[in-house]
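Extended Data, panel c. Modelled sequence:
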Amino acid sequence: MLVTDGPGYRIIVGEEQLDLLRFDRALDEARRCATVDGEVAALETALGLYRGRVLPDSRSPVLTSAAAALEDRYLGARERLLELRLEQGRAHDAVTELLTLVAEHPLRESLSALLMVALYRVGRQADALRVYHDLRNLLAEQLGIDPSSAVNYRYQQILRNEPGLDRSPAAAHGPAAAQPPAPPPRSLPHDLPDFTGREEELARLLAQASDAPDGAAAHPAVRIVTVDGMAGSGKTTLAVHAAHRLADRYPDGQVFLDLRGFSPHGPPLTPHEALGTLLRALGVPGDRLPDDPSDREGLWRGMTADRRMLLLFDNAAASDQVRPLIPAGPHCLVLVTSRPSLAQLDGATPLPLAPPPAADGLALLGRVLGHRRVAAEQEAAAELVALCGRLPLALRVVASRLTNRPQWSLAYLTGRLRDEATRLDELAVEHRSVRASLGLSYAAVPATHQELFRLLGAHPGADFDGPAAAALAGLAPHTAESRLEDLLDARLLDQRVPGRYTFHPLLRALARDAAAQEPRAAGESRRRLLDHYLTAAEATAALVEPGRRVPRPAAEVRPPAAVPPPRDATAALAWFDAERANLLAVLGHAEESGADRHVARLSLALAPCLHARGQVEDELAVLRKAAAAARRLGDPALERAALTGLAAPYGRLGRVAEGLECAREALSLSERTGDRAGAALCLSRIGAFHNALGQYESAIAALHRALVLLSRTEARATEENAVLASLGEAQAALGRHAEALQTSRLVILHSRDAGDPHGEVTGLTGEATAYAAAGQLDMALDRLAEAAALARRAAAPDGSAPDGLAPVLARYADVYRRQGRHREALHAGHAALHLLRRDRRPALTAAVHNVIGAVHRDRGEYQRGEGHHQTARRLALRAGLRRELALALDGIAHARAHGEGPQEAKEHEPRSAPAAPVPPVHAHACATQHPTH
């Protein structure tokens, strides 16, 4: 009935006439029902009254809001009915309806949670998990939020295959639900009773057990430590030992998992396979493991979220293999061992593991073999550790062999290991082989890197840089550098200095063995390497000795890939210092292989660098190789250059007779070939040797001939200055002081014009010598002060002693002695001797000892004086220096004549007398000039 009510109308109906009232009454009845079936019947009655959306076309905000509220009550009732049907076990019926509802209301999280459970109960676990992922993506895209905790909880339940999801809540309270929890997993391998050393690394690992490492207490997170190093370096042994020490701090389990990154037993475990093993260790049945990788990861994180576990992942191949295995629990500790560095494993603390010190290697042998056995053969044991490269795997192999062969001595096994070609064959016992272990790292890198590794085995030196590797492999420098870095990451190379690479001794044996299997490729690569080092060494020598004259043969070497030359002499010598051992090794290889052209040219290029570094014996050795190779080639120009060069180290070593012979041979070759400049250089050397022998007239004759020849050539100022310096020395020794002064001044002028400070120092020293010989001692000191200051200003940037300072100090000592300034004379003399310890010059050293001896005699210290004269005598006898020998014998005689008694004289009695009488020599000739390059 319709009635008026104020300004409007009102309809009057009975309770049974309005479906909304009947709907409300049915919902009230459902809430009061004590049974599931009764509640289902009431809800079905209520929902049966629904005829579609209420007032869908209303434009009234009030009516629209009331309609929305009614629609939500309807969805709530329908959702509750579906929950009850799941409890009744009617999951199949619920799935169809829920799929429709979720499609209609995709943001209603409770419906998605119900659908996940329904799908799970009908055996569609993957579909259930997909519903969750779809919801999560939708919420993130449209609202920027994550699913609710209730939905996440259902997701975790499905991942864990919780039994309660398979039955109704009522059934879950029955006896079948009571299952004992799985015991915590404890799968660590046994700890070694003879674990030795690694104190520092072990301390770092144990420190990671702290609950708040590095101030992270406010934001606790899982701790990850990666232990990386080459094969056989003891990574697993250390990690297992640390894990046992920490086990009691992680009561929820200690799990060991071999990831088989480098294994002969199969390919590396995939993260999916590894997660399956880990989940089974936590009690998840194999048939309940999720197939989807993301779901398996989620289940693992969920099950470890609240646990304190220690996880040891051994033998990892890469960061990607480990990353999915990291647990979510902030109280877990993860130890990872790997050969490559896991640089992309965020949050990890790296612990690189190098081979242990030699002392630890000896201690390990003592623990295994017995300390008495090792102590009885200490030298053999130390060599054994070195031959094993201090690698723990190799040391355990040799210890096992010695244990199984008690009749073998350590020296016997050491002898078997000395041959690098068979060393890896010796380092094997039962199924444990160092070669096999190292070979797994080699097999894991790409074929292009394997080829480079093999060719590096053909390098005769101990280390190498990128350009050398590029030449060896025939690659562009940047390509070689990239591959070297990859091999470094793979632990097939080591790096002790930035930019330079080296092998562990056992990896070098592996590489050389691999190179020997391909002799043709190895031979070609060595040829390229030899060309590279020759080109680089000649560029270096040109900077160290500007204007050097080197014969250029008609047949040039093949130029290697372009390598930027050093920028100056300092950089050139720095390159030489880094490559010195390699250059000498390559030279030895060239000599063995009969590459005489390379031997001659490389030796001539190395000589200036060796000379600059004061390595006189090596300089002499390489130049002798050059001379021999030039003779085999029948190349007089190369032979002349080698023989002329040989005169310099012979002169510095005081081997005057041999140096003079070489210079005369070189002169003969120069004259035969019409080489005027070469002949002038030889005559300069000959003149200097005559000076050393006290044959000044012969020296002057040879030096005048040299000056004439130089005037007819485009000679360098340094070559002419060397001749003039020797000429001034001879003139001063003969008392021709005015000529000596004039000659020395010419040296100074020429040197200043050429910008040659070292030549100027020589000229100033010669001028001081002439003044001293003329008795003008104060003038001599003035020139020496200039020379010393200039020598220090021109000193090398590397901090080495200024070139030419030793002769200046020697001359200072002599002048001070003549002035009676004994304290200054001794100070200058000993300073000169200190410099001469590095720069071996026997003639100058003998002269300084004679001066110091004379000072001590002047002070009445005859015993000390005689000691210095005896040292000078020994040096002069070995070098054939007749002038210094005469001075030494004269000093010894004076010391004995004024000594304290016969006993002191007997202690300093000469062991031998000169073979022939020597002419009298003036005491002023104490500091001599010697041939230089």
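The two ends are 132 Å apart (CA to CA). This feature is highlighted in the accompanying rendering.
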